[in-house]
Amino acid sequence: RVLRRKLQEQMRAIQLHVSRTFPEGTRVSRPEGGGVLWVELPRGVDSVELMYRARAEGISIAPGTIFSTQDRFAGHVRLNSGNPWSDDLARGIERLGSLVGDMLSLGGA
Fold first, then answer.
1. Within 10 A of 8 (CB to CB), how many other CB atoms are there?
2. Rounded to an integer, what distance in angstroms lies between the CA atom of residue 14 and that of residue 20?
3. Neighbouring-strand partners of residue 79
4. Greatest CA separation for the chain
5. 6 phi, psi to nearest 5 deg
6. N or C: which end of the chain has fewer CB within 10 A?
C-alpha cells in the first residue's frame, strides 16, 4: 500500500508539472493505475522528432508510435512515473515542455 501511494503521488506530481510547463494544447492522461503517463502533444508536434531532440539533452521519452503497429499516436509520448520526484526530474519536464514549444514555433518539427 505504501508503494502504491508513493507511485500515485509521483504520477500526480508529473501530471501537474506537465500541465504547468507544456504549451497550450497539451493533454495529459489520468491513468487509473500503472506507472506511465500519456501526454498528447499539441497538434503538429511529432513525438519521434521530440524524442531525438530530448535525447540530445539527456532526456528519455518514449514516442507513441512505438506502441502501435499502425501510424497512430505520432503526437503522443509516454513518460515513466516510477522514478522518485526530484529537482532533476522537474527540470527535465520543464525542458521537455520548452522543446515542445520550440517545435510549435517552428511549425511542428
1. 14
2. 10
3. 37
4. 45
5. -65, -45
6. N
